[in-house]
Design a protein that fits this description.
44% helix, 234 residues, alpha+beta, 6 strands, six-stranded antiparallel sheet
């Protein structure tokens, strides 16, 4: 493993209002800046693995997905909606354990995570050109420009782009006015899977305190209440 990541042994994460996890502290504060640093949770990892499956026919290399992340498991609850994660060496493809995965962005231009984004984009472009009859072939540059424009709009609004959203923006990308059969077939089931996965267990006494912390739960009840409010307005 690269020297830039060997000293990263643990990190502290919090669940944001957007129901995504964000890093607040790391063991290696010299190489890692936690400002806007996001981490992919176990339910999102499962979603990504399922979502890249259609890209395998277009040259997708799962090893690039594996090496682009540093894997962690829950160590203990720290209270106040924060959880300490401990680094592990497991592959996301070769374990049954629920893992959090931190994108390796120490080198944000030429590192493994940057390589993954480029690889995903190229595979998605190949898929789209195969299944959609464009007047002229879609290019990687066109896709990157459009996605970058959306990300810049978020930055202007002061919003950090979560790595899961960054990845799914590529995996799910389809030009405006077009759609693919794979997008329609997988959308509802994938979204349900992302929301239904439970948090993994933690060690010893931390398990009880984590389960009792409502800030660490996927709040489906709130979502149902919001739906009822919307229906009443209609």
């Amino acid at each position: 493993m690269a020297n830039s990541t060997t000293s990263l042994d643990w990190c502290v994460v919090r669940l944001g209002e957007d129901h995504n996890w964000w890093v607040t502290e790391v063991s290696d504060s010299v190489r890692w800046d936690v400002d806007g640093l996001s981490i992919v949770d176990p339910r999102q990892v499962d979603h990504l693995i399922d979502s890249v499956d259609p890209l395998r026919d277009y040259g997708f290399d799962e090893d690039l997905l594996d090496v682009a992340f540093i894997t962690f498991r829950i160590d203990k609850d720290l209270g106040d909606g924060k959880v300490r994660l401990k680094r592990v060496k497991d592959s996301i493809f070769d374990t049954d354990e629920k893992l959090f995965t931190l994108p390796d962005i120490v080198d944000d231009e030429n590192g493994p995570y940057a390589d993954l984004l480029d690889h995903l984009t190229r595979c998605r472009v190949k898929l789209l050109n195969d299944v959609i009859d464009f007047e002229s072939p879609l290019t990687v540059d066109e896709v990157e420009d459009e996605i970058r424009e959306d990300q810049n709009a978020s930055f202007i609004e002061g919003k950090a782009v979560h790595s899961f959203d960054e990845l799914t923006a590529i995996i799910d990308y389809t030009p405006a006015g077009f759609e693919t059969d794979d997008d329609d077939d997988g959308k509802d089931s994938d979204e349900e899977d992302v929301g239904d996965t439970d948090l993994p267990d933690i060690d010893e006494e931390g398990e009880k305190s984590l389960k009792g912390d409502s800030s660490l739960k996927w709040d489906e009840d709130d979502e149902e209440e919001d739906d009822k409010k919307e229906e009443s307005r209609d």
